[in-house]
Amino acid sequence: MTMTMTIHVDIVSAEREIYSGLAEMVFAPAELGEVGISPRHAPLITKLNPGEVRVKSNDGESSFFISGGLLEVQPHMVTILADTAIRAKDIDEAAALDAKAKAIEALADKSGKIDYATAEAQLAQAIMKLRTLDRLRKRGG
User: Which domains does the chain have, with CATH numbers?
Assistant: First the structure.
C-alpha cells in the first residue's frame, strides 16, 4: 500500500472557518492565474482573485467560491484567507443571477450616479459564482 502525500489546508473567511483538512492538491485563482499546490510546494504568498478553490483529497474533490483574499503556502500547510468563502454547492444561483443583472443594469446607467468600479467588481463576482456552480455541475457535484 502506498501512502499518498498530503498537505494540511485551512480555508478561512472573515466570518468563519470554511474548511480544514488534508489534501493531495489545492487549486486556487491566484492574481496571475490558477495555481496548483501539492505537498512540499515552495513557500508562497499571493493575492487571490474571485473564483473557485478546489481541494482534492482521498474523499474526492471539494469546491469553494471565494471573493478574493490571500493564499499562504508553508512547508506542510496551505492557508487561504478569503474575504468571503462559501462551499460551491451552497451558492445561491438565483441571487448570483440577480446580482449579475443588477450589475449589468448599473453599468448601463450613464447618469453618473453609480460607482463603476464597484459595479464591475460585483459583476465579476456574480459571473465567477455562476462559473463555479457550472463547473461543479459538470463534474457531477
Answer: 7-88 (2.60.15.10), 91-138 (1.20.5)
Task: Tell me how many degrees the CA angle 139-121-78 measures, rounded to the nearest 5.
Answer: 55
Phi, psi at 82, each rounded to 5°: -100, 145
Q: Which residue has the cell 463547473?
A: 135
Q: Are strands 44-48 and 69-74 parallel, antiparallel or unpaired?
A: antiparallel
pLDDT (tens digit per residue) in 11-42: 998 888 999 999 999 999 999 999 999 999 99
Residues 6+ apart with CB under 8 A from 135: 52, 63, 88
Residue 15 is classified by DSSP as S
pLDDT in tens, 79-111: 999 988 999 888 888 889 889 998 888 888 877
Hey, what's the torsion of the CAs at 53, 115, 106, 63, to 10 degrees? Answer: 10
Q: Which three cell numbers stand for residue 141?
A: 457535484
What's the predicted TM-score (pTM) here? 0.79
* CA end-to-end distance (rounded Å), the chain: 29
